[in-house]
UniProtKB/TrEMBL annotation:
Record GO terms (molecular function): calcium ion binding
Signal peptide: 1-21
Name by which UniProt lists this protein: EF-hand domain-containing protein
Pfam families in the cross-refs: EF-hand_5
Domain EF-hand: start-end pairs: 43-73
InterPro entries per the UniProt record, alphabetical: EF-hand-dom_pair (IPR011992), EF_Hand_1_Ca_BS (IPR018247), EF_hand_dom (IPR002048)
Keywords, sorted A to Z: Signal
Amino acid sequence: MKLTHVFTLTSASLISTVAFAADLTFQTLDSNNDGVISPTEAQVSEELAKQYRELDSNKDNELTPVEFAQFKK
């Protein structure tokens, strides 16, 4: 019984994570609407946080919409 419960919770968590990843748009990540994604805003996505420095092609510590377009989810 407990194993079934754990499996159900794990499955729900994975489905939730996949659904959240599909909603990662520049607009949703730019929470303060300043036109760039800061390192703090990028922390919402572990994958984006990992790729942040690589994506920041001009090394200004901000992601523009053009830089974010290179994000591979």
